[in-house]
Amino acid sequence: MTRERLYLFDTTLRDGQQTQGVQFSTDEKLTIARALDSLGIDHIEGGWPGANPTDSAFFDAAPQTRATMTAFGMTKRNGMSAENDDVLAAVLNANTPAVCLVGKTHDFHVETALGITLAENTDNIAKSVAHLVAQGREAIFDAEHFFDGYKANPDYALRAIRAAYDAGARWIALCDTNGGTLPADVGRITAAVIAAGIPGDHLGIHTHNDTENAVACALAAVDAGARQIQGTLNGLGERCGNANLTTLIPILLLKEPYASRFETGVPPEALENLTRISRMLDEILNRVPQKQAAFVGASAFAHKAGLHASAIAKDPTTYEHIDPARVGNTRIIPMSNQAGQSNLRERLTGMGLAVDRADPALGRILDRIKTREAEGYSYDTAQASFELLAREELGQLPEFFDVKRYRVTVERRKNKYDKMISLSEAVVVVKVDGEKLLSVSESMDETGSDRGPVNALSKALSKDLGRYSAHLEDLRLVDFKVRITQGGTEAVTRVIIDSEDGQGRRWSTVGVSANIVDASFEALLDAIKWKLIRDVA
After folding, report:
1. Which residues contact 53 (CB under 8 A, 6 or more apart)?
2. CA 337 to chain centre
3. In Å, how far are 40, 293, 516 from 481, measured between CA atoms?
């Protein structure tokens, strides 16, 4: 059976940049564009040239891509011709083969927000699209607030998109701009648009996630006949985000009826890079990846319950809807006080630690986990600390160094500019290969900013570990989480540290103490030991 072509339109570089707290540099946009192209996206919307310096600079340096590079803008302003509108001219001057223009299709917005007549708005749409086509560009029209507009005045909403289609628009993207439309209505209205004469192979869908239905709404539109999907990597976007392409792409390629019915530009080998690309974006944004994200999250294939792990060991399909390797992810068997020996042996095997079913160390490991979790530890996410605990009980934990003592001081004082600053200093004494080594480090970074006592400890500890120091040069702390467990006079502090190295490995460690610095130091020590096991042992 011949499969229909379904087109993917990425708006990460434009819509994604509207996410609160997100501001891409030009170089970052170039990196993301290359990653999107390697994935097999059909259109990459690079931004709005002329609207800000970063977007303009991106188009000046835009990479050569297989994907169709697309500039974004708005329809011409009322009272002037498309040829004389300088805002529209700036978009065309980006010289992209495709241009996406947004225009109003909801009568309320036309009359209230724009303050013009419905006829004037329709004329602006038609003449703007016709101008793009006359310039030899692929024209895409984003029908803003279309679903709300259709519910309020279906005749006008259809008239507005018909103006764009008749003027030569290749794609009409139906936009659920405020994210409030539910999947059933998206499907019904998309089908009505096709019945009214706009072919499905010219229709796109652009949804927002304000009701956690963006992906479902996009699929509903495809089910109704739309053949282009607009979305963003990791669901970036204004408010609650846009339709998440890192969820939609594997659904389209791996789930029925989509896998058999449609083909996209994403080949199976590119799909295997999806998790890496998703995490690359989070790294650029300097944020921690969402563990529960479908397909690409660190917990997407994590099996905590003992019953589940036992079944997984026999056949992974018992609790996994796909093979995690197909999207570049991995299976995790977390350890916790709910764990049984099935979880434990499966997890140890994954670490390369083959343990006989009758080995008494298994029982000791489980007992230690349960005792330590009662004290406030958590090994659900701190898999590296769990491995160290297990290796210790199995007699397979190398002793790289021994910490004899450490001290941290925090000083609050005025600098030479008469501004109050804080500064931490750490002193660490370790014994390596029979020799005592003392290191001192401050928490001030190269910009003159204080990075805190944990940073000072990390720098001091890794500064001089003898022959091991070279292995820690690419180690960095990427996240630091603190939780107060229990309460009152019995309260203790749990610290989780996420670390990363130059080889792209990422691991988590845990420390617990009544003192936050001590808990941090314990987690830090585990992070270093885990890396040395990988690089030295």
Report:
1. none
2. 30
3. 36, 19, 11
Strands (E), 360-469: 402-414, 420-432, 435-442
Q: Which stretch of DSSP H or E encloses residue 216? A: helix 214-224
Sorted by sequence, the CB contacts under 8 Å of residue 283 that are 6+ apart come out as none
Beta pairing partners, 420: 414
> Tell me, what amino acid is at 15?
D
> Would you tell me the crossing angle of helices 516-535 and 453-463 to the nearest 10 degrees?
40
DSSP E strands, 164-211: 171-176, 203-207
Going by C-alpha positions, the residue among 11, 41, 42, 2 that lies closest to residue 29 is: 11
From first to last of the 537 residues of the chain, give the pLDDT tens digit: 689 999 999 999 999 999 998 999 999 999 999 999 999 999 999 999 999 899 999 999 999 999 999 999 999 999 999 999 999 999 999 999 999 999 999 999 999 999 999 999 999 999 999 999 999 999 999 999 999 999 999 999 999 999 999 999 999 999 999 999 999 999 999 999 999 999 999 999 999 999 999 999 999 999 999 999 999 999 999 999 999 999 999 999 999 999 999 999 999 999 999 998 998 898 788 777 888 999 999 788 877 655 555 666 667 777 789 999 999 987 776 655 445 566 677 778 778 888 888 888 888 988 888 888 888 888 877 889 999 999 999 999 999 999 999 999 988 888 778 888 888 899 999 999 999 999 999 887 777 677 888 889 888 888 889 999 999 999 988 888 888 876 555 678 999 998 989 888 889 999 999 999 999 999 999 999 999 999 987
Q: How far apart are CA 366 and CA 363, in angstroms?
A: 5
Q: How many angstroms separate the CA atoms of 90 and 50, rounded? A: 6
* pTM of structure: 0.73
